[in-house]
Specification:
Oligomer: heterodimer
Mean pLDDT of chain B: 88
Shape of chain B: elongated
Strand content of chain B: under 5%
Structural class of chain A: mainly alpha
Largest sheet of chain A: 2 strands, antiparallel
Order of helices and strands of chain B: HHH
Strand content of chain A: 5-15%
Order of helices and strands of chain A: EHHHHHEH
Largest sheet of chain B: none
């Protein structure tokens, strides 16, 4: 059974909900036309939504899709770590 | 718990109850206990879990994906079991002049349905518990 998790895609749905008058999961679910369980799975990074749902989520918060979802692949994370460790080494020297 | 999960639990309960009923009737009715399989007709009531409620979303894209995967898994398991049973049991069950006993036909039909519904329900519930179902 596939279990792809979030596949390097993270979201700020929980943060955005609280920034929008502490919107409840149920209110958000009704706003975008999904069940509350789907919102729970999204916030836990256990489900990647369709493009349509991603746009609906962005629309309800009045932001761009990239403000809701961020993609970070394993390579970029590693290179970021490398950069940080180099900076630390340089600072020590 | 959303309607799709409720249906999965309901179907699982109906299948298990039916099996218990049939097994309980065997000492009294013998082969006729297979009539207890009629209890599987209760599966039809699962549609009532999808009654519309104002302002509530009954099923969304994630439910559809989970159910779709569960159907593929259930169909694959059913087909494997069916073909294997047909191939392995055939020499044992064919009677005089190549006839197949009625009880075997009944068992095949109900058995197939039970395998399909059980795997479908379990696969659905496992996917919900893991939170999977990516729209990819």
């Amino acid at each position: 059974m596939p279990n792809n998790g979030s596949a390097g895609i993270h979201n700020r749905i929980r943060r955005l909900r609280f920034d929008h008058g502490e919107m409840t999961q149920q209110q958000l679910a009704e706003g975008v036309g999904v069940t509350r369980q789907t919102i729970i799975a999204l916030e836990a990074d256990k489900y990647l939504p369709s493009l349509l749902l991603a746009f609906r989520l962005a629309s309800i918060f009045g932001v761009k899709v990239e403000d809701v979802f961020q993609y970070q692949d394993a390579q970029s994370v590693t290179s970021e770590d490398d950069k940080n460790s180099k900076k630390k080494t340089e600072a020590k020297n | 718990v959303n309607p799709t999960q409720r249906v999965a639990w309901f179907n699982l309960i109906v299948v298990i109850s039916t099996l218990f009923l049939v097994l309980a009737l065997v000492p009294f009715l013998g082969q006729a206990s297979l009539g207890g399989m009629g209890t599987l007709g209760l599966l039809g009531f699962s549609v009532f879990f999808y009654r519309r409620k104002p302002g509530r979303v009954l099923a969304d894209e994630r439910d559809g994906l989970i159910l779709g995967r569960a159907v593929v898994i259930a169909y694959s398991v059913f087909w494997l079991a069916f073909v294997l049973a047909a191939a392995l049991l055939a020499p044992a069950i064919f009677g005089q002049d190549g006839s197949v006993p009625v009880v075997v036909v009944q068992t095949s039909v109900f058995g197939g349905l039970i395998v399909f519904i059980t795997v479908l329900s379990v696969a659905t519930l496992i996917q919900y518990s893991r939170g999977t179902g990516n729209a990819e």
